[in-house]
Amino acid sequence: MGGFNPELGDDVVEVRDWVHEFARDVIRPAGAEWDEREETPWPVIQEAAKIGLYSLDFFATQWFEESGLALPVAFEEIFWGDAGIGLSIVGTGLAAAALSSNGTPEQMGEWLPEMFGTANDVKLGAFCASEPDAGSDIGSIRTRAVYDKGDWVLNGVKTWATNGGIANVHVVVASVEPSLGTRGQASFVIPPGTPGLSMGQKFRKHGIRASHTAEVVLDDVRVPGSCLLGGKEKLDARLARVRNGGRAGEQAAMRTFETTRPSVAAMAVGIARAGFEYARDYAREREQFGRKIGENQAIAFLLAEMATRVDIARLLTWRAAWMARNGKQFEQAEGSMSKLVAGETAVWVTEQAIQILGGAGYTREHPVERFHRDAKIYTIFEGTSEIQRLIIGRAVTGLPVR
């Protein structure tokens, strides 16, 4: 197997350019409106579905592209357009990844299409792992799943769920045997219309406002045994192995997050690039003291640093995506590296973009203030920067860093 090659194939370039065109012509012009409205941009998702961008086929094709770079490249373009709308378009992908990582082929065949719907009847998926009192501590999940006469009954509250409560299909991580901590957890599909599942609080957020984020309340939610991802036989074998002192294998929620980290990093790269490009173009046109502000060393050097950091973040993201696609283990926590660097780069670059625009950058007349608000979440969700450093620290030292 060859090594990592950052040169994009013709098919990936073609998709990149196609997605960029949609981001430029449809997503970006709508960004400010849906940020102000703080509502799910259904018309934009519908347009994405009509051209095949929001579809199971698109996500699957890009996921299985042999270089592993197709999905992060596409995500960068979408989020270059707008992060809030972008997350509304790709948010279902996290639920799809959870299903694909933990489910059987039969479960994937049944539920993946239900998450996306069709171009004429768009649906959403939601992945529900976080809880109000757990945060990044997946081991503290309290949502309980109890087996009862062939069914599973779930009770608990999930929070920070993208598309939570409005999704057609929810994938929920719950504790089956609390005494085993993360090793006693499993994931469940909650079919559409299941009694007992409801939306709790919808959050009003600092950024990514066009993406729906809410609590999901599970009150005696009863689902058939077939909704346990992977099946009961596999779960029982794993629990028995753990009780006897054996290894449990990778935990359900963490498997999903590790799989999607390069894609999340790519979102942050898109935001960072958007901020850099806007500031660069502004510096080329804005005149003060008789010359373009980009002619000042202070501005030119800052733009140079911004461009360099964006490229660093992109290359780390592409390396992690290539490794994941080609079965290379993240021995140095390369997935976490990509998420850490891309998220912090997006925050820093967009802040410098505001600085370059000065007072104008602090107003909503220019999009850089929105880019900056959108960027901050990438140092928080799907594992905070602190959690990423903890993971990397453990990987590079081989020690149980706490």
TrEMBL record:
It comes from the Bacteria. Residues 13-115 form the Acyl-CoA dehydrogenase/oxidase N-terminal domain. Residues 249-396 form the Acyl-CoA dehydrogenase/oxidase C-terminal domain. GO terms for molecular function: acyl-CoA dehydrogenase activity; flavin adenine dinucleotide binding. The keyword Nucleotide-binding does not apply. Keywords: FAD, Flavoprotein, Oxidoreductase. Pfam families: Acyl-CoA_dh_1 (PF00441), Acyl-CoA_dh_M (PF02770), Acyl-CoA_dh_N (PF02771). InterPro entries: Acyl-CoA_DH_CS, Acyl-CoA_Oxase/DH_mid-dom, Acyl-CoA_Oxase/DH_mid-dom_sf, AcylCo_DH-like_C, AcylCo_DH/oxidase_C, AcylCoA_DH/ox_N, AcylCoA_DH/ox_N_sf, AcylCoA_DH/oxidase_NM_dom_sf. Residues 126-221 form the Acyl-CoA oxidase/dehydrogenase middle domain. Its cofactor is FAD. Belongs to the acyl-CoA dehydrogenase family. This is Acyl-CoA dehydrogenase.
